[in-house]
User: Fold this.
Amino acid sequence: MKLHHQIFLAMLAGAGIGAITGEHSTLFGVSVLAGFDLVGSLFINALKMLVVPLIVTAIISGMVGVGGGDNLGRMGVKTVFFYMSTSLVAILIGLMLVNLLTPGIIDGEPARNLLGLSAETDNVLAKIEGRGAGDFTEILRQMLPPNLIAAAANGQMLGLIVFALLFGFYLRTEKGSAGETLRQMIDGIYQVMIRITMLIIRFTPIGVFALIAATVTRTGMDAIEPLAWFFLTVLLALFAHAFVFMPALILLLGKRSPIRHIQAMMPALLTAFSSASSAATLPLTMECVQDRAGVSRKTSSFVLPLGATVNMDGTALYECVAAIFIAQAYGMDLSFGMQFMIVVTALLTSIGVASIPAASLVAITVILAAIGLPAEAIGLILVTDRILDMCRTAVNIWGDSVVTVLLARSEGEEQVLSLPVNEMEARAAEAAREHHQAVN
Ligand code: ASP
Assistant:
């Protein structure tokens, strides 16, 4: 059975089992939920373990591979342009729908009393502490970490990326055997990381089963009801961005079939959905984009690690919808200027949001503070956060992969999405075999 079918079945099984499992259910005296948590976190840890070496070596070898200064400048400008403009479109789609559907106003009244602030409100701030950049100055600070090891240990990827970009930039032109050895060594680490990723990928169905079962056991489906309109608004906006706007880009600019691209990305998308973490999904994203979509290593290893950290379409959209929903629920009148500020803040903070579950909540508190609402107001949306987090993370990954395809196409990569997934994978496996034979 194909991997994404296995993952899909595992998700269904996880949801089914999670629905009949209570938070306190036990099996042979052992908590079932604790079992799901253990298996889920082993899977996520295994993926996260790869992230630091993978991001650093991918970016450095990506920089070396991109070649001369002109190439690099062109790729850099195109990447930033695509990332920023697609995120902006996502936010504008959210803005339009939240103004149209006004989920925070029910029967002409602000929904504040109807919703009641979540009982968990007191814990909210403690819960989200350390989940990413608080404000713009913090984002800037993270870009130049005083201590690289500490940045890596704390998952502050922005600093690592800046360092890796600089390192790659200079390693590119380092002459002599020292430069050559170092380039080969970094390339070797990267190759090994990809092979370990492939090993972990085999366990994806089991990991995904446990993650979904734990989430459904904890959240249940009842939680969604009081926030149904908000929930639907976010889903609708994410859907429009992911299934209308982005496919149109692949079709019109990339001149390839969006359906073929969804097939290629399925394992990564399902893992993003189950794990709610772009960082943990990155190894799979790279694997799908290279081996299943046929994007060159040169392009993908430069664009994807950057995207997993700074390009979050789903998150940016969610921040905007959530902030405006809360303002509506509080009965606040949002002027054009205020909405404009929300859009800009959502765009900028989505860059600094960490690629881990629930990280948007920090950014939303920043936006709330900017429009004069108490940070605790995010208590309103906590109940639905996990499920929406799963959806927006999948959209984040989808956005990264689409931009990578567009970039590859604009660089003249003909092979991208040109063959069925199976054939593409078979070719990649063949190339890997030849590589190993040559090495040995
Ligand atoms: N969970 C998201 C991600 O990892 C970030 C967020 O929106 O909370 O991409």
